[in-house]
Amino acid sequence: MAEEIINKVAQSGLYTLDLEDYYPKEEIIVFDLKPLLFMEMILKEKDFRAALQSIDWTQYQDKVLAVTCTVDTIIPSWAYMLVAVHAEPFVKDIFLGDRQTALQELFLAKLRAIDISEFTDKRVVVKGCGDVSIGGFAYLEVARRLRPVVKSILYGEACSNVPIFKKKS
Questions:
Q1: What is the pLDDT of residues 52-77, one digit of tens each?
Q2: Which of 38, 65, 128, 153 could form a disulfide with 164 if both were Cys (CB 3.0 to 4.6 A apart)?
Q3: What confidence tier does 19 reach under pLDDT thresholds 50, 70, 90?
Q4: How many Å is the maximal CA-CA distance in the chain?
């Protein structure tokens, strides 16, 4: 007579939170101000405005724009405002910084939108390994958000984990 196989992980009452589920899938386009500058070094207002008006902004339709300047120069704050005003009707979102900065901001926004109440008094395992490299910022944010409501936070897999937090009774 064969013994019944018991899935102890399924019976453990652990809830697995996979951060890959929240990893941004939007296309991020880097918008470099450098080509819009005089001699790729100096921002001349009149030329900058003309350059922005000549751009076909429809190419950024429903994309995420990461606005940066890859040359070390002074960019006045109003210049970023002008870019935003031109891009806003077309882009899905816009961030100041490089691709990684935009990715991080999108990721954090998705993590902050999680309904934390669904984790109330649960034992949560935050999945640690996967196909996508998740930055420490995401683990920091999810632990910060979960801590006030969960019974415990673990890192890794249900069968092999690192205890992070346990609510004191």
A1: 999 999 999 999 999 999 999 999 99
A2: 153
A3: very high
A4: 86
- From the CB of residue 27, how many other CB atoms can be counted at a distance below 10 Å? 10
Q: Which residues form the domain of 41?
A: 28-91
On whether the CB atoms of residues 117 and 145 are closer than 8 A, the answer is no
The DSSP bridge pattern shows strands 93-96 and 123-127 to be unpaired
Q: Kindly give the pairing relationship between strand 160-166 and strand 152-157.
A: antiparallel
Q: Cβ(18)–Cβ(164) under 8 Å?
A: no
**What's the confidence (pLDDT) of residue 1?**
56
The pTM of this model reads: 0.83
| 53 shares a domain with 17 | no
Residue 101 lies inside a defined structural domain of this protein? no
Q: Is 18 inside a domain boundary?
A: yes
Q: Are 47 and 79 spatial neighbours (Cβ–Cβ below 8 Å)?
A: no
CB 159 within 8 A of CB 9: yes
**Is 4's pLDDT higher than 90?**
no
Beta strand ranges found along 59-106 (DSSP E) = 64-68, 93-96
Please indicate, yes or no, whether residues 82 and 133 belong to a single structural domain of this protein: no
**Residue reference for tokens 């500058």:** 37
